[in-house]
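Invent a record, attention on tokens:
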Amino acid sequence: AVARPAPSFNVKTLEGKPLRLAELRNKPVIVDFWATWCGPCRASMPHLSRMQSRYEKQGLTVIGMSVDDGAPQSVRKFANQLGVKFTLAMANDEILDAYGPIRSIPTTFFINRKGDIVRRVVGYIDGETMEDYVKEILE
């Protein structure tokens, strides 16, 4: 797979704060498209939380982009029950188009410090594999 620049985005976090990819320049980023009703997405959440905690000092930012139709509050409640430790936002049509087509979830993008997508993974990623992918973008 050839690295390509990650499309910029501007969304609001579940807390209502603006979140722009441009503000994460020179940081490794994981963007994970998921939904509350998606079993493999739920199974990935603990791995994503662990990566955020483990590699935060190296600048890693994990962003969960919910594709749920429901209110952000219900997504937040769900994430709290799972103990999610990373930033969550609601995906909008612009980001879905820019990163898409997103036909199945989870779809996870690994973005290096240069802002290039180096890996796009559709489906569940086990913890060990995810760690390998994170190490690639930490360099």
